[in-house]
């Protein structure tokens, strides 16, 4: 039986900073740890969201693709969904929503996931263009991002909250991806104005952190020279 109290994380956001962008986990392996999740492909190849066991990729042209089991990722989160309804919201602004979720969850010092289904106003997302070796840094690669907007869109926001204590391994606070119900729009969420819908919540008591020990570049890299927190915040915030 799958354990819904465990959040699985492959790689760290920190390893993206210096451009360690090799795909070091297959989608098949990621799905063995959960039916729900987010991530990015090798070379920051688009933005991924897994819903009900189906992995969707939003590429830099804005296309939504289904990815196969051999697709590889440098960074991803997944878990087995066991959400409970938390709030119903009506036209709530994003800042107010995050505040209300934080207060209701009372889980600032552990990991949790939030799933919001509903209608979002002025949704702004991004996806990064795939790069190839030799990879540039996260800051340079993220400059080649494409921005997508929708005035109003029905869909699912999937977010993982990480405690500040883990900032760098993950991004402290919320890391959110989106997929429209029509499967024609999505990506890493930059902003949205407001949402009307249902907020669901799932808390984790365990983080299973998996590292790419078979990847020579990762194992030999000296992270002490990298400006990890600023670069992660600039790219993922």
Automatic annotation (TrEMBL):
The lineage of its organism: Bacteria, Bacillati, Bacillota, Bacilli, Lactobacillales. The keyword Lyase applies. CDD domains: acetolactate_decarboxylase. Keywords: Acetoin biosynthesis, Decarboxylase, Lyase. GO terms for biological process: acetoin biosynthetic process. Its EC number is 4.1.1.5. InterPro entries: Acetolactate_a_deCO2ase. Gene3D superfamilies: Hypothetical protein, similar to alpha- acetolactate decarboxylase, domain 2 (3.30.1330.80). It is an enzyme of class 4 (lyase). Pathway: Polyol metabolism; (R,R)-butane-2,3-diol biosynthesis; (R,R)-butane-2,3-diol from pyruvate: step 2/3. GO terms for molecular function: acetolactate decarboxylase activity. It catalyses: (2S)-2-acetolactate + H(+) = (R)-acetoin + CO2. This is Alpha-acetolactate decarboxylase. Belongs to the alpha-acetolactate decarboxylase family.
């Amino acid at each position: 039986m799958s354990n819904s109290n465990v959040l699985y994380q492959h790689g760290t956001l920190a390893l993206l900073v210096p451009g360690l962008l090799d795909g070091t986990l297959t989608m098949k392996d990621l799905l063995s740890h959960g039916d729900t999740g987010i991530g990015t492909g090798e070379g920051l190849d688009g933005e991924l969201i897994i819903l009900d066991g189906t992995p969707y990729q939003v590429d830099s042209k804005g296309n939504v693709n289904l990815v196969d089991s051999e697709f590889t990722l440098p960074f991803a989160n997944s878990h087995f969904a066991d959400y409970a309804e938390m709030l119903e919201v009506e036209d709530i602004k994003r800042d107010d929503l995050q505040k209300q979720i934080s207060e209701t969850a009372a889980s600032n010092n552990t990991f949790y996931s939030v799933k919001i289904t509903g209608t979002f106003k002025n949704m702004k997302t991004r996806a990064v263009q795939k790069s190839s070796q030799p990879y540039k840094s996260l800051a340079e690669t993220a400059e080649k991002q494409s921005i997508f907007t929708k005035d109003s869109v029905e869909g699912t926001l999937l977010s993982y909250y990480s405690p500040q204590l883990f900032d760098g391994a993950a991004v402290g606070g919320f890391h959110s991806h989106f997929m429209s119900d029509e499967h024609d729009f999505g990506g890493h969420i930059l902003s949205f104005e407001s949402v009307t819908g249902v907020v669901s919540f799932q808390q984790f008591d365990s983080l299973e952190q998996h590292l790419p020990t078979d990847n020579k570049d990762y194992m030999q890299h000296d992270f002490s020279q990298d400006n990890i927190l600023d670069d992660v915040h600039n790219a993922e915030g």
